[in-house]
Every structure is written in structure tokens, then in C-alpha cells.
Specification:
The complex is a heterodimer. Chain A is α/β, with parallel strands linked by helices. Helices cover 36% and strands 21% of the residues of chain A. Chain A has 5 helices and 7 strands, in the order αβββαβαβαββα. Chain B has a domain of 193 residues: Porin (Beta Barrel). Chain B has a 24-stranded antiparallel beta barrel. Chain B has a two-stranded antiparallel sheet with strand order 6-7. Classes of the chains: A alpha/beta, B mainly beta.
Chain lengths: 159, 526
């Protein structure tokens, strides 16, 4: 049993290929309208960050991105999309929080967690960078203050 | 064992090949999550609520693989409980060590229609009559094994239908569930572009042939349960309003119920959001709404609909010590939230963020004789960034709850105070210190808690914490952990003593026994 786990862990650490692209599933926008996720990418690089209302590091990360966004945009062109994985019952509170925190970026609501499953997110915060073709070029789980600097570095590499 | 290893390895081989040849042959993605605990003997913890299994080990692991090519996708999820971690219902009702194919599906998703066969995750409305989902933190998965179809006509309407048998822990229930959902966008049909106005109606049926079995003969009058829901939501100029009304035909709401009862529920919500300000109020009334997947099942995983506690969920240890347990038999109450952010124009990064929340729930007099307070929480928190280095959060929460779920007038009160400071030494190094105090004259009396977390972005984080009940039990609940994340992998190793209590996720809670031990969590995706 432990052997299986060990093999699995090793194998996954070694298979470190970035093959993901943005899947096409339906999520809601700020007003409750349905949006196809595939229509959101393909123009410029995107930071795609999954969050939930009870995930504290997620809120710290999104607040940090909200702070840095203006400054970073002077150097690189990109968009931020925050995807709430809160279910139908908490989605209103997620909307309230997004507005209350004064987030200046696009907020989407993945009520049935279709996008979360399709992108294999098992732990929030989970943040991706997609290039202008919609391909995942970077991803990171967890957040500690300062982690956002790495996102900026990656965005600059995409220029 | 060897066969399994080989099978897994060959699957990974296929994965790697497909990944390498992406686009022409589609893409393969996946994730691995493994939670392991080694339980140790601890003299300080005693009694029936303490977990220390004979072989000291528990492990829940999930491997999920998804293949996608254009509009087609297929996937599977392997699950291993070797054995399941203590406190999960998988351990109680799943039985022993198990490795299983937990989910599989094939799916076609087009603009105007979609089809899925396999394990289905779906919810109708706010989930009051049906929600199938997976929550690994709770050890919960009630996915429906069957077929699901969706048809959309422009943006005007969407129809969904499904049929299948629900998963119950590590097996499937003997009942079958079918349902349909219609969503009509009146704002799109009438061309009212400045607003969103949707109407939604759903129907769910559960069928289980039990009427003639000895156990149910004299208390079951039908094999079918029918549930209906109608709802609407309206969004205009920052105002958001939604409501849902649900009725449920006669049903046994718990396995031991002597007679069938019909149920109903009302949910209403009104919110307003502007830039930097938002307010939200919600109301819910429940009556006999607990709905089982199968009348023959038990435990918190045997549930067809979704009825979470609508209260604030905290991330602080002491504020979460006694979370509210929803009473689906009869409950009446609501909550309100106000969020406000103030940014002085002279220095926009020195912001103030404020949040106030009140929640209050009362029992149904039909069940408890008279309507009594079940739960009240009045709380306020403020976050201020002093400068680029220092940020402070202060929280006060005044909670009162009924330990008997409203059967008598006794309530317990807790007053919780939290101070949470983060100091950034430089762009990568930061220190977070939490100080918490719980003042109470009831139950276990006073508590204090502290946490220190040192982070080296973006990879390392080390934390130590202690939660001490100096009011009564004099037990320290200490924890130390280190986590490492790089790209798509995160590893966390910890050791500590954990209190018996409720672990909550998304408003749903499970009871977990006390234990002392080491835990290792690995998550990875590719």
C-alpha cells in the first residue's frame, strides 16, 4: 500500500508536463448570467485564481493581487479572473465579498464546481497562468504573502 | 498488489504520452490527493471520543484523470481508503481497507446540448431538493451513477434531465433517483438587457421498493418520494434578489422515524452591492427537509439534498469551536452581512475593510414544544493595512447556542476575541501571529489560543499553534506543521493533538474524534 503511494507520488512529481488548456464549461458572471469559459481566454495572458469564502489564504492572495494589479499593468498586459467555487447557497455571499473587497478584476462563480473539476483543482487557493492562446503555462497551490511576485515574474516571461 | 502497481504505472505511461502529444490527440490532465495520519497513544485524551486504531494508520487517497479532446471528455477517479481516516463515515460504514473506482464518466459538451454518462454532479436551484457533489474534507460523495442530458435554446431556456442510482459511501444505494430542471431567462426573451431575470422549476423523484419488506411494511405507504421546487432570481443595478419554494411528499426523514411526514422549505435572499460596499440578507425556513438517499442507510453521507448551516464560517480556531448544526426537521431564521472597504485617496494601499454579520435561528414549536433560540452570532471584524509591511485584523464574535437543539431553555454563550497580525520583513519573508481568547461562563469555560506562522514565499511555510482550555479541562491542543509547495505540488507534514468536534466545509459538518498524531498531506495536479 505504501509502495503504491510512493510510486504514485514519484510518478506524478516526474510527469510535470503542462498540457492543460482552458476547458469549456458554463459558469456564472457577477450578475448571474451564464458564461462559457472558453470565451474568456485567447486575447492576452490571464491569471486564473480559484477561491472560496471560507478560504483565508485565497482572500489574502486576491486582495494582494488587487493591490499589485495597477502597478504590474504598467509593465505587462494581462487579465485577472477570480473563480469562486462556492456552491449555490453561498454564491450570493461570494458576490457580496467580491464587491465589498472592491476587487477590480473579473469574478466568476463556479456553483457546480464544473470548472474546478475540469482543471483538476483539489485545494484552494489554486492559481494558474494561461498564455494568450489559453494554454496553462504555470500553476501553483497554496498562498503565502509574497507568492504573488512569482506570478509577476511569469507574466514578464510571457511578454 | 503487483498487478495494481503495473496498471497504475501503465496508466501514467499513457498519460505522459498523451500529454506530450497534446492537441492532436487531446489532453490528459489529472490530480492526486493523499491524506495520511499516523495515530499515537496519548494519555491526556481518553474516553470514547478518542481515536487510536490498532494499526495506528489511516489514509484517504484520490487519483483523478481526465481526458479531453474538443467537445468530448472522459475521466475516472480511483480512491483508496487504507483504511479510511478516523471520523470519516467511510470508516464507519464503508468497512475495512478498500481501493475502488470511485467515479467514471464520458461526456459531450456542445453549445446548445450536453450529455454525460457515468457519475454525475448536479444541483437544482439552491440544492434544497437535490445536490450531488463530492467534498473530500467531509469524506462526502453522493454522486449519481447514471445519465444526464442538457438542452439549451439560445439564452432563453435550459432543460436538464437525469436518472441514476446514488453513491452511498463506498457503494451504491438501492434506490433510484430521477429529476428534471427548467430554467427560463425572461430578461433574454424580452430583451431586457440591463437586468437578469430567471425563473427556475425542478422536480426530483426517489424510488425504493421497500413497502413490502418487514421493516417498512407498517410505516411506508408508498415507494416514491416526490420533491418540487420553484424559484426566481433578479439582478438589476446592483440589487440581487432570489427566492425558492420547495414542497416534499410524505417521507421517512430519518431511518428510525415511525411515520411519514411531508416537508417544505422557503429560502429568500436580498442583496445590494456597489463599489466597495455590499449588504446581503437571507431568510430560510425548513420543515421536515432531511431527505435520505436510501431509507436503509445511515450517517451524514446518506443525504440527497443540501441543507447547510447559513451562518458565518470562521477560519479562527476558537471562533469555530462550537459551530452551528442545522436542524432540518424544523428551523427558522436568517443572517445579514455588510462589507465595506475604505481607501483614503491620498494613500490607497492603507485601506480599512470592515465586515459585520448577524445570524439567528429558532426551532419549530411542532418539534420542540415552543420555538426556542438555537443559535445566535453577532460578529464584527476590521482589517487595516498600516503600511507596506504591517497588516492587522481584529475580530469580535458573540455566540449563543442551545446544546440540546431547542428541547429546553438552556443556552451557552461564548465571547471570542481575535487579533491577527501579518508582518512582511521583505518581499518574500513574512510572519503571521494570531492571538485568540474565548470568554465563557458555560460548558468548558475559558480558552486561549495562539498561532505563529513564518512563510518564505512562494515555497515554504512553518507554523506552530496551541489552543488551551484553562477554564476546565486544562488540556493543550498543540500543532506544528511545515508545508512546501512547488508548481503543482503541495506537501504538508504536521504533528499535533486534535480536539473532538465538528469539522465543517461549505456549511456541512462532520463529527471528528479527538486524536494525537502525525499527518502527511500531498496534493498534486498535472
Amino acid at each position: 500500500m505504501k509502495k503504491i503511494l510512493f510510486i504514485l507520488v514519484c510518478a506524478f512529481l516526474s510527469v510535470n508536463l503542462y498540457s492543460q488548456t482552458m476547458p469549456n464549461v458554463q459558469v456564472e458572471d457577477m450578475t448571474g448570467k451564464q458564461v462559457n469559459t472558453a470565451s474568456l481566454v485567447g486575447d492576452k495572458p490571464v491569471i486564473l485564481s480559484f477561491w472560496g469564502i471560507t478560504c483565508k489564504p485565497c482572500l489574502i492572495e486576491l486582495n494582494a493581487l488587487n493591490e499589485c494589479m495597477e502597478e504590474w499593468k504598467e509593465e505587462v498586459d494581462f487579465d485577472i479572473i477570480a473563480v469562486s467555487i462556492d456552491d449555490a447557497r453561498f454564491v450570493s455571499r461570494a458576490r457580496s465579498m467580491a464587491k465589498g473587497h472592491d476587487w477590480q478584476f473579473t469574478c466568476l462563480f463556479d456553483k457546480n464546481q464544473d470548472l474546478k473539476r475540469a482543471l483538476n483543482v483539489s485545494f484552494t487557493p489554486h492559481t494558474f497562468i494561461l498564455d494568450s492562446k489559453g494554454k496553462v503555462v504555470y500553476s501553483h497551490t497554496g498562498y503565502v504573502p509574497g507568492s504573488e511576485e512569482e506570478l509577476f515574474e511569469k507574466l514578464k516571461e510571457l511578454k | 498488489m503487483k498487478k495494481k502497481n503495473l496498471a497504475l504505472l501503465s496508466m501514467l505511461g499513457v498519460a505522459a504520452t498523451l500529454s506530450a502529444q497534446n492537441n492532436e490527440k487531446g489532453t490528459l490532465t489529472g490530480s492526486l490527493e493523499s491524506n495520511n495520519i499516523y495515530y499515537v497513544e496519548d494519555n491526556k485524551l481518553s474516553g470514547s471520543t478518542t481515536a487510536n486504531p490498532d494499526d495506528h494508520f489511516g489514509s484517504n487517497s484520490y487519483l483523478k484523470l481526465d481526458y479531453m479532446k474538443g467537445k468530448f471528455s472522459a475521466g475516472l477517479q480511483l480512491e483508496a481508503f487504507l483504511p479510511a481516516l478516523q471520523g470519516y463515515d467511510y470508516a464507519l460504514y464503508g468497512g475495512g481497507k478498500r481501493t475502488m473506482l470511485g467515479a467514471k464518466y464520458v461526456q459531450w459538451e456542445d453549445e446548445d446540448f450536453g450529455f454525460r454518462a457515468g457519475d454525475i454532479y448536479e444541483q437544482f436551484g439552491t440544492g434544497l431538493i437535490f445536490r450531488s457533489y463530492e467534498d473530500r474534507a467531509l469524506g462526502f460523495n453522493n454522486s449519481l451513477e447514471g445519465v444526464h442530458g442538457r438542452f439549451s435554446y439560445k439564452n432563453y431556456l435550459t432543460v436538464k434531465a437525469m436518472y441514476g442510482r446514488p453513491r452511498l459511501y463506498l457503494d451504491y444505494a438501492e434506490s433510484s433517483v430521477r429529476g428534471g430542471n427548467l430554467n427560463v431567462s425572461l430578461s433574454d426573451i424580452t430583451g431586457w438587457s440591463s437586468a437578469v431575470l430567471n425563473l427556475e422549476g425542478s422536480y426530483v423523484n426517489r424510488y425504493e421498493n421497500l413497502m413490502d419488506t418487514p421493516d417498512f411494511m407498517d410505516r411506508l405507504s408508498t415507494n416514491s418520494l416526490d420533491m418540487y421546487s420553484v424559484g426566481a432570481n433578479w439582478n438589476w443595478n446592483g440589487i440581487d434578489a432570489r427566492m425558492e419554494y420547495v414542497t416534499k411528499s410524505k417521507d421517512l426523514t430519518v431511518a428510525t422515524a415511525k411515520e411519514m411526514v411531508s416537508g417544505k422549505a422557503i429560502f429568500a435572499e436580498l442583496g445590494y452591492s456597489g463599489s466597495g460596499f455590499s449588504a446581503l440578507a437571507s431568510y430560510r425556513k425548513l420543515s421536515n427537509m432531511n431527505t435520505m438517499l436510501t431509507l436503509k442507510g445511515q450517517g451524514s453521507g446518506n443525504v440527497l439534498n443540501y441543507i447547510p448551516a447559513l451562518t458565518r464560517q470562521y477560519t479562527y480556531m476558537l471562533a469555530n469551536l462550537n459551530p452551528y448544526q442545522v436542524s432540518p426537521d424544523g428551523e427558522n431564521g436568517g443572517q445579514g452581512d455588510i462589507y465595506y472597504t475604505y481607501r483614503p485617496s491620498s494613500n490607497r494601499s492603507n485601506y480599512w475593510k470592515m465586515h459585520a454579520n448577524v445570524s439567528m435561528y429558532y426551532s419549530d414549536s411542532k418539534h420542540t414544544g415552543e420555538s426556542r433560540l438555537l443559535w445566535r452570532d453577532v460578529n464584527f471584524d476590521v482589517e487595516h493595512r498600516w503600511n507596506k509591511s504591517l497588516k492587522t485584523i481584529a475580530l469580535v464574535s458573540v455566540q449563543e447556542w442551545s446544546p440540546t437543539h431547542g428541547t429546553n431553555d438552556v443556552t451557552y454563550a461564548s465571547n471570542i476575541f481575535v487579533l491577527d497580525n501579518t508582518y512582511k520583513f521583505n518581499r518574500k519573508t513574512s510572519l503571521r501571529v494570531e492571538l485568540q481568547y474565548l470568554y465563557s461562563t458555560d460548558y468548558e469555560k475559558d480558552w486561549m489560543a495562539g498561532l505563529v506562522e513564518l512563510s518564505f514565499a512562494p515555497k515554504w511555510s512553518v507554523s506552530v499553534s496551541d489552543m488551551y482550555n484553562h477554564g476546565k479541562t486544562k488540556i493543550h491542543y498543540y500543532n506544528a506543521s511545515v508545508s512546501y509547495s512547488a508548481n503543482r505540488t503541495r506537501i504538508q507534514l504536521g504533528y499535533g493533538r486534535n480536539r473532538a468536534g465538528y469539522v465543517c466545509s461549505g456549511g456541512v459538518c462532520r463529527y471528528t474524534p479527538a486524536y494525537t498524531g502525525a499527518n502527511l498531506t500531498v496534493t498534486s495536479s498535472f
